[in-house]
Amino acid sequence: MLENKSSKFKAAAVQAAPVFMDLEGCVKKAEDYIRSAAAQGCRLVAFSECWIPGYPWYIWLNNTALNMKYFVDYHENSLVAGGEAFQAIARLAKEYSIFVSMGASERDNGSLYISQFLFSPEGELISGRRKLKPTHMERTVYGEGDGSDLQVVDTTLGRIGQLSCWEHLQPLTKYAMFSQHEQIHLGAWPSFSTYPEAYALGAELNNRASQVYAAEGQCFVIAPCGMVSAEMIDLLVENELHASLLSQGGGYAQIYGPDGKPLCTPLDPSEEGLLIAELDLQDITMAKCFADPVGHYARPDVTRLLLNTDPQPRTDVLLTEPLPSRMEALSLDTADEPLAAEL
Fold this sequence. Notes:
Number of strands: 12
Radius of gyration: 24 Å
Structural class: alpha/beta
Number of domains: 1
Oligomer: single chain
CATH topology: Nitrilase/N-carbamoyl-D-aminoacid amidohydrolase
CATH architecture: 4-Layer Sandwich
């Protein structure tokens, strides 16, 4: 049963550039926005896709061989779950008593993943998930998540879910989230700064994806958006072709109501800041009266979703007791042989 929480509350979407490929710098800059959101009465603040240590825009500018010079620094500055920078973000959530959704390149041993981590005002991790399928060139950098990453968690604010970027263009992924009665959706975007001739990669279409998500799921959508800084341009743009493909700015953060209505006056695409809106969960009740895709507006006798939420570990240990080593097995075999008859 869907239970509305007690009251209205404020939420913030961050529109800002990271301190690119600088893990410590990103955490310090994040604190500024967490502090500011809390000071303005927000109970939740959300950061963009891969805000730590920044979205790797170089993958859209070069072939992979030319990008190898970035690999080590990007890897080393990605966020390790449970690591020092990770714990610092948890402490910030607790210090400022606010929910924090952090988009990050997550480093798990030798692999990277596009991840989102949701921390409670008590500084506890209440949801950590990985992008189910990295998009196009992202697959040269990141691994995949699994069905356990399609999660909606119950919190003191309401039922919160998270997705990244073009996961909002995946109909079945969206329906999996709707089916968990999501009330507050955190949809993280990297920035809209690249390939100006590619309409599908631009702000107009992708902001509409967030807006339609809100209307389809009858939920609030908080859509933080990253930006490309002048420092990132200096580092990544090496020739005229690069300059034509990647531009500074690209911030288009917004917050949408459960009827799809934008709730904030947009910032200029080159301006960093917070977009803040008051969310009233009772607005969801009204929207659900008109359309509930997993309730009265569904036809499960005609179409339904098969969802596998089991984690997919890389190794399954099937035996509860270890087999003897090869040398131990040889010793056992020798011990079982009858003694040779005496001559």
